[in-house]
TrEMBL record:
Species for this entry: Actinomadura litoris
Record flagged with keyword Transmembrane helix: yes
Top-level taxon: Bacteria
Keywords on record: Membrane, Transmembrane, Transmembrane helix
UniProt keyword Lyase, yes or no: no
Protein known as: Integral membrane protein
Chain ranges passing through the membrane: 43-63, 75-95, 101-119, 126-150
InterPro entries listed in its UniProt record: DUF6113 (IPR046095)
Pfam family name, one: DUF6113
Region (Disordered): 1-36
Length: 171
């Protein structure tokens, strides 16, 4: 390759030795350029979003712990409705955050709050008692949280968490 070929193959304003690369078929201009790191602003926004979904899980756990005792006769109606709220909170948080970690954060915070509210204090007080509504709320809420996390699609291809960059396909 001589100098005339190099000048013809290089972009205007770029060094003569740098050849043009053909864009990938179907790629938008934003996808064709290499992506820079998100930077500190993106990290701050992501951290704040995870903190908010964690706070949401804590609020659902706290309010549910106080409301789970409402019944209609012998049926723990409030506990059953609160299980649906836990599932919706976890599932929608995962959908909004775009991955299972976004669903796991409110589920774990909910579980911690409910565990603390169901332990007996030295004075003998507890918020979630060992009654049918309490058991339905705790066990049903745990199952709903696990199911909500499982229903969120994974953010990457299968095995990516294990293999890292090696799992990404070249195509």
């Amino acid at each position: 390759m001589d100098e005339d070929d190099e000048a013809r193959d290089s972009a205007p304003g770029s060094p003569p030795g740098r050849a043009l690369t053909a864009p990938v078929a179907g790629a938008t201009p934003a996808e064709a350029e290499p992506r820079a790191g998100g930077g500190p602003l993106e990290a701050l926004v992501s951290g704040a979003a995870y903190a908010l979904v964690g706070l949401l899980g804590g609020v659902v756990g706290l309010l549910g712990s106080y409301a789970q005792g409402w019944t209609a006769g012998d049926v723990p109606v409030a506990s059953i409705l609160l299980i649906a709220v836990v599932f919706a909170t976890v599932r929608l948080s995962g959908w909004g955050m775009g991955g299972r970690i976004g669903a796991t954060v409110p589920a774990v915070v909910w579980g911690i709050v409910v565990f603390v509210m169901s332990t007996r204090r030295p004075e003998g007080d507890l918020v979630v008692p060992a009654t049918l509504p309490g058991y339905v709320y705790i066990i049903g809420g745990m199952l709903a949280a696990v199911l909500g996390v499982a229903r969120v699609p994974a953010a990457g291809p299968p095995g990516q968490w294990l293999l890292g960059r090696a799992a990404r396909s070249r195509g």
